[in-house]
């Protein structure tokens, strides 16, 4: 063996040194992602003013009760609608069944708060429904007839379910399509009818997927602020806004945020437990696909109507109402406020997408490169940000960041005599950080899957040719993963465009995005000015839905 050149570093030492750098990078990124959650817990247990006894005796039971009822109601209704629609389009052929299979995904493009504004405008006293009823029946005032309360907890459940049921629908449809036709043939031979097939065969086999979808729906419901605020339903999320912004008590807001985190962790645990005890396996042979049953005229029209109802409520109604207002107010499209909000949205959502994907790329690669245990344990923990509501993250970000900003500004002022102001909380940087933490799981999941598809022999060959770990990432992995990187960038960008609670709490003074402009204008009953930004948000959402539909249409996808 030739002697090493003096001053050179042995290959093994270089490998260990490079691995250590990537491991350290992964740990730093994980710490930044987990920082807001840990900050919330720390502030809640060490508040400057402990109002926990006051919360327990006054508003907290109401917040908790409304949140529980809203979450359970939305989860149950979304599970019923999503699983039922998935069963119909998977098992039966009826008019436009192939088209409905994809149209049922479109409500994902509609933020729930936009659906709330549209539903109230459609059903309120001066809306088209009640106006038509009064004209047709000769009624002159609200005292002449009964109409359901529009701004109520029940209507909030309907709106949230109409926007969120596609989460259950996608997972349930994939589960139904993966099942073998033999199971249903045996059940039919034993005398099971259509209802029996669903309740005794299809539903038990798809239960883990339905439970996972329902858990996502319930977590999104806990996160919601726009719908419950517009409908006047006091939940834990609205409680954070009230205690923090109205009572100026950050510790109390953090304590309510901890209650929300506890609920989220319980939901995540229940979802994992429900799947852990449910294991269903295919035989070694490729299962025969399910043959769709042709429905007769009446049954086919009924199935079409059942599938069309959630699509119409979750997509057609919001787009129709918002679109009509946009056509009636063309001047709103050229207002300075809209242009400024659009540019701000592109800035913060685009920056967050770039930062999030870059952070996820470095972390996933660092974890795969290192053999150390701690980074591998922290990788799944960083996904908790996606489950944490935006309002919770805002509490965990703004308070420590504001303290850091003031310390930096005071230091610079003392040393130079120049006051730089609040560099993070006084700009959009805090919003970008919140988006990155909230949607880190999306980028991490997409890139972790992409890394797994690259053959290990390719980076090994690159390393044998003298490429460093960074060179292998740049010259081998990234060219093969550019599709997944682009997908992750788009998904994070779309979710950032729609995010409302974190943006409302973290934005600088007089800083609007499309989401906050929609919320502010609609809260003032000005749907004319709210419609253009709402349609822009919907258009961005349609990009993500189209991307998911395209991915599911690829060969071998479910």
From TrEMBL:
It is found in: Cell inner membrane; Cell membrane. It holds the Pfam family BPD_transp_1. It is a multi-pass membrane protein. PROSITE patterns: ABC_TM1 (PS50928). SUPFAM superfamilies: MetI-like (SSF161098). Coiled coil: none annotated. Keywords: Cell inner membrane, Cell membrane, Membrane, Transmembrane, Transmembrane helix, Transport. InterPro entries: MetI-like, MetI-like_sf. The chain crosses the membrane at residues 21-47, 67-90, 102-120, 154-176, 197-219, 252-270, 298-321, 341-365, 377-402, 422-443. PANTHER family: FE(3+)-TRANSPORT SYSTEM PERMEASE PROTEIN FBPB 2, INNER MEMBRANE ABC TRANSPORTER PERMEASE PROTEIN YDCV. This is Iron ABC transporter permease. It comes from Albidovulum marisflavi. The lineage of its organism: Bacteria, Pseudomonadati, Pseudomonadota, Alphaproteobacteria, Rhodobacterales.
């Amino acid at each position: 063996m030739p002697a090493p050149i003096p001053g050179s570093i042995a290959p093994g030492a270089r490998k260990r040194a490079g691995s250590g750098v990537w491991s350290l990078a992964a740990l730093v990124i994980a710490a930044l992602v987990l920082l807001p959650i840990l900050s919330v817990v720390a502030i809640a247990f060490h508040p400057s003013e402990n109002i926990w006894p006051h919360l327990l005796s006054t508003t907290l039971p109401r917040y908790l009760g409304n949140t529980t009822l809203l979450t359970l109601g939305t989860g149950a209704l979304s599970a019923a609608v999503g699983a039922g629609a998935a069963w119909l389009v998977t098992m039966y052929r009826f008019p436009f069944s192939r088209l409905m299979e994809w149209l049922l995904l479109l409500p994902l493009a509609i933020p729930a708060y936009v659906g709330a504004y549209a539903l109230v405008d459609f059903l309120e006293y001066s809306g088209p429904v009640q106006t038509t009823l009064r004209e047709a029946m000769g009624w002159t005032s609200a005292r002449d007839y009964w109409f359901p309360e529009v701004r109520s907890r029940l209507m909030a459940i309907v709106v949230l379910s109409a926007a969120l049921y596609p989460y259950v629908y996608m997972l349930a449809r994939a589960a139904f399509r993966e099942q073998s036709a033999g199971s249903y043939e045996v059940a039919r031979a034993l005398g099971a009818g259509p209802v029996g097939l669903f309740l005794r065969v299809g539903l038990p086999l798809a239960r883990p997927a339905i439970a996972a979808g329902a858990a996502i729906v319930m977590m999104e419901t806990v996160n919601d602020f726009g719908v419950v605020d517009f409908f006047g339903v006091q939940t834990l999320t609205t409680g954070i806004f009230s205690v923090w912004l109205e009572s100026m008590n950050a510790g109390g807001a953090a304590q309510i945020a901890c209650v929300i985190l506890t609920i989220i962790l319980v939901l995540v645990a229940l979802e994992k437990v429900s799947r852990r005890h449910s294991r269903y396996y295919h035989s070694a042979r490729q299962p025969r696909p399910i043959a769709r049953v042709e429905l007769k005229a009446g049954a086919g029209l009924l199935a079409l109507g059942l599938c069309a109802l959630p699509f119409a409520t979750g997509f057609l109604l919001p787009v129709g109402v918002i679109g009509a207002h946009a056509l009636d107010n063309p001047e709103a499209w050229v207002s300075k406020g809209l242009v400024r909000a659009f540019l701000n949205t592109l800035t913060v959502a685009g920056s967050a997408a770039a930062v999030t994907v870059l952070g996820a790329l470095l972390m996933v690669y660092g974890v795969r490169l290192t053999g150390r245990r701690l980074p591998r344990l922290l990788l799944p923990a960083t996904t908790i940000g996606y489950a944490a509501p935006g309002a919770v993250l805002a509490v965990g970000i703004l308070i420590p960041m504001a303290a850091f900003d003031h310390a930096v500004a005071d230091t610079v002022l003392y040393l130079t005599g120049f006051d730089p102001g609040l560099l993070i909380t006084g700009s959009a940087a805090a919003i970008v950080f919140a988006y990155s933490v909230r949607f880190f799981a999306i980028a991490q999941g997409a890139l972790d899957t992409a890394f797994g598809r690259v053959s290990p022999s390719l980076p090994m060959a690159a390393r044998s040719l003298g490429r460093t770990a960074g060179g292998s990432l740049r010259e081998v992995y990234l060219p093969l993963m550019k599709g997944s990187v682009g997908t992750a960038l788009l998904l994070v960008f779309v979710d950032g465009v729609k995010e409302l609670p974190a943006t409302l709490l973290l934005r600088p003074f007089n800083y609007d995005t499309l989401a906050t402009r929609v919320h502010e204008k609609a809260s003032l009953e000005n749907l004319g000015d709210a419609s253009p930004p709402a349609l822009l948000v919907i258009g961005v959402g349609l990009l993500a839905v189209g991307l998911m539909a395209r991915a599911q249409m690829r060969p071998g996808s479910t």
